[in-house]
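Section 3.1 - Work completed
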Amino acid sequence: MPIEDKTVLTPTQVDQELSTIIGWKRKESLLLRDFLFSNFKDITFFLNHLVKTITEQNHHPDFTLNTEKKTISIAVTTHSKKGITQADLLFVKTLNSWKPGS
């Protein structure tokens, strides 16, 4: 299991990184994104990708599933550092690598 890089980033550093990462926004010390799905099969595939990412990176975001709207909302931060770290950026980039049907 890789060691997490818990180097805390400044808001400016985070915003600069986010300019190259599709779909994510910063709100204080959180990285936020809502993933919208067209069907429950893709929700299941994405949840498997999320669990695999959590396990492989030993990083644990907060997330909710809204079955009516077919969305998964994710909030990523490094709780122990009370801020956004390199580990958070790696996590969101990995989540973004998911493709429907995979």
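Second construct:
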Amino acid sequence: MNPDDYCQQKAASSGSSFYYSFLFLPIERRRAITALYAFCREVDDVVDECNDPQIAATKLAWWRMEVARLYEGKAGHPVTQALQGVLPSFNLPQEQLLEIIDGMEMDLTQTRYLDFKGLSLYCYRVASVVGLLAAEIFGYEDRKTQKYAHDLGMAFQLTNIIRDVGEDARRGRIYLPIDELQQFDVKAADILNARYSDNFRRLMEFQIERAERYYEQAFAQLPAGDRRAQRPGLVMAAIYRALLEEIHRDGCQVLTQRTSLTPLRKLWLAVKTWVKEG
């Protein structure tokens, strides 16, 4: 299996909505974004699948060295070999790939966030940085598109956090800021033990409203001249906003279920958005 095939398999097998957002890209851009996504999956899997934090930290340290080798032209892993093949065509700064690893490392040492400011740093590292790299791959003329990419990444990560509250709690993690739990009188124990309440529903509605504000803020900052090039992000946004609507419609039952859209609905939203923005 060659590096590109490895990345393609990694992307397709994940079932992620991201896969649908770059189905219609020209082959070179699709190769690049698929390799970037596969890199994100690899380093994220280190944290999610490794029960020993020390072993996970060692693996992430290996990935840091592998990123260094990538920029020296000596990539050894199929994912970094695929990235090495697209580096001449796209501006993918080494420090941004390392920042993604920084975000993953936060999961090894931090399971709570005091406030949204602290959570924002995490979201920036694991999602906004990915958005900035993706914007480079998709192409843009106006630097304002970087602000759009930053805020869209924030919106995506906030959506992930909302969707995964119960799943994260079963791993002992709560990404909802402590001061907001206090504001809505929701105890951490209620989340860890999957206890629903009206206060919890109101807390989640507050989270959904903030995510929606980030989507709107991102769209407002996307220059008209770059809208066509940035269609993959708009496809992803359509899928993720539909997911948020489903969560809200279900009464924010995120402690005991993981809301998702069917592959057919994701594909329909992708085609609809791609044609609309074309």
